[in-house]
């Protein structure tokens, strides 16, 4: 396989999801393989101190590369080779046959995180399909009863997150609330993706700018109370990993997460992660009790449903080049907003 052909598809691979849309992956092309690594500048040391979401995002990227390559008829294999010191998770290399996957490049292109209103949650068949995907990797997908208890846990998690100055400072660095910001169209979380109107975006910017002064006066509580995603409908799923997941296992589980999200997408549903429930030890423990599972096995919690309206497309640092047209049937114009 000609790695140059894969390089031409790389912009589409960048449609993979990542926490805070930091796009931490980096590809190193050698003549016989492409090493997948990460840039620590795009990690989230305050919000994701263990690197769990970093590794899930890297795994989601790897799965996306395999899907995109397979859809273009390229024979690409993945060899995991996690090395923290070299900041790499493994290598993509020419294989004997295309990666077997039910997903297409168009799914990668069209999938979006959806933080808005859902008209309904996943039915039993969709839950079973996602569960089957996760079970094949030794885990499970479980419905979290979205009653008052979950709402209270979410409120607690949000309050704890907003109470941490380092986490808030990091979030501010990745928020793109000003359309004039040069990075508005390249990375981070935009006002439109967060579903914030102009007034709400301005209010949030002002509140976060005044955070040091307002924190002791209860700003974290106010910020936490300002959003109630569960009121926007859908169901909530917890992705449960196999026991004793190490760093390399988290990358592999990121691939599972991607397959789970694309399973939802194929069924006309979308995902809205609620990672704060996993980030905060107390709420993760409470979820563990609720689901009768060891809390450390809960690695991802996500609100899931049928979008009432299409979600805005998130930004990417790498844009498509016209050469993409030569190797993929996708309409390159529709790849970007
Ligand atoms: C591991 C992981 C954790 C995430 N956690 C959250 C989260 O807690 N809240 C949220 O709104 N989005 C979360 N996201 C979604 C990302 O913000 C989103 O993927 C990114 O902004 C790119 O947008 P897209 O998914 O529409 O392409 C997470 C994504 C990943 C891969």
Automatic annotation (TrEMBL):
Gene3D superfamilies: NADH Oxidase. It comes from the Bacteria. InterPro entries: Nitroreductase-like. This is Nitroreductase.
């Amino acid at each position: 396989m000609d790695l140059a052909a894969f390089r031409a598809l790389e912009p589409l691979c960048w449609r993979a999801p990542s926490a805070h849309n930091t796009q931490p992956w980096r590809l190193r092309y050698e003549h016989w393989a492409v090493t997948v690594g990460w840039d620590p500048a795009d990690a989230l040391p305050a919000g994701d101190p263990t690197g769990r979401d970093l590794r899930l995002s890297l795994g989601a990227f790897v799965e996306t590369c395999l899907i995109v390559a397979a859809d273009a008829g390229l024979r690409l294999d993945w060899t995991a080779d996690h090395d923290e010191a070299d900041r790499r998770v493994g290598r993509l290399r020419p294989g004997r046959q295309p990666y077997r996957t039910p997903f297409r490049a168009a799914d990668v292109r069209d999938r979006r995180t959806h933080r808005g209103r859902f008209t309904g949650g996943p039915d039993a068949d969709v839950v079973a399909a996602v569960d089957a995907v996760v079970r094949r990797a030794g885990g499970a997908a479980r419905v979290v009863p979205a009653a008052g208890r979950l709402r209270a846990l979410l409120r607690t998690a949000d309050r704890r997150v907003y109470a941490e100055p380092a986490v808030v400072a990091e979030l501010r660095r990745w928020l793109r609330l000003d359309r004039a910001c040069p990075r508005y169209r390249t990375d981070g979380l935009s006002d439109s993706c967060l579903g914030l109107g102009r007034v709400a975006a301005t209010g949030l910017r002002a509140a976060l700018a005044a955070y040091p002064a307002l924190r002791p006066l209860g700003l974290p509580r106010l910020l936490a109370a300002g959003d109630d995603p569960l009121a926007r409908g859908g169901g909530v799923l917890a992705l449960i990993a196999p026991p004793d997941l190490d760093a390399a296992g988290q990358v592999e589980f990121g691939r599972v997460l991607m397959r789970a999200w694309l399973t939802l997408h194929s069924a006309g549903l979308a995902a809205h992660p609620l990672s704060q429930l996993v980030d905060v030890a107390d709420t993760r423990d409470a979820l563990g009790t609720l689901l009768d599972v060891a809390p450390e096995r809960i690695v991802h919690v996500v609100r899931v449903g049928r979008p009432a309206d299409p979600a805005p497309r998130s930004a990417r640092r790498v844009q498509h080049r016209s050469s993409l047209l030569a190797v993929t049937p996708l309409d390159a114009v529709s790849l970007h907003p």
